[in-house]
Amino acid sequence: EPEVTQTPSHQVTQMGQEVILRCVPISNHLYFYWYRQILGQKVEFLVSFYNNEISEKSEIFDDQFSVERPDGSNFTLKIRSTKLEDSAMYFCAIRGQVLYEQYFGPGTRLTVT
Amino acid sequence: ELKVEQNPLFLSMQEGKNYTIYCNYSTTSDRLYWYRQDPGKSLESLFVLLSNGAVKQEGRLMASLDTKARLSTLHITAAVHDLSATYFCAVDTPRDDKIIFGKGTRLHILP
Description:
The complex is a heterodimer of chains A (113) and B (111). Chain A has 113 residues and is mostly beta strands. Chain A contains no helices and 11 strands. The N and C termini of chain A lie far apart (36 Å). At the A-B interface, strand 5 and strand 10 of A face strand 5 and strand 10 of B.
């Protein structure tokens, strides 16, 4: 099973601040995804990224969000001006190459105060 | 818009009993996934079901898929406490590069 790491594991920030969440796959992958999970709720799709471009995004992924692969390995999610309601677990996922299933990283818990 | 419905949302059961979690989805899908999530942890892939009639088993868990009925089941046989977790069903769509999750079934197995 492909491995994905995420940093930081927990981020506390004040409302209005910018945060960058990072995802590092262990091996080369082309498909990346970000999901979020508000505490106790279901997992929600944010964005998919393929070949250095966004391939799909949800209505949650508004102008405050952006993604990039700055150095060809790390995959980042930036929230420009955080709001209280951005508090959630953020999961990065990669697509497996056999069954195309998505493997999830350990997550970053974002707390906006 | 693809919708995924799971039931029950919460299940408390005794060790040794059998039970089934149901997952209905609203439109044609390429793949159906079952994930397990322990409290505060990430999502662990359990099964990927690709075709009608697919059945997969791992230990006390067995998943099946009926694409005509747009229904998947996750069956738990002789439950043990270690299976306590939240189980999510998720589905992807032919044209969209994303998976849509159900609300999850929180399974609590009493010793």
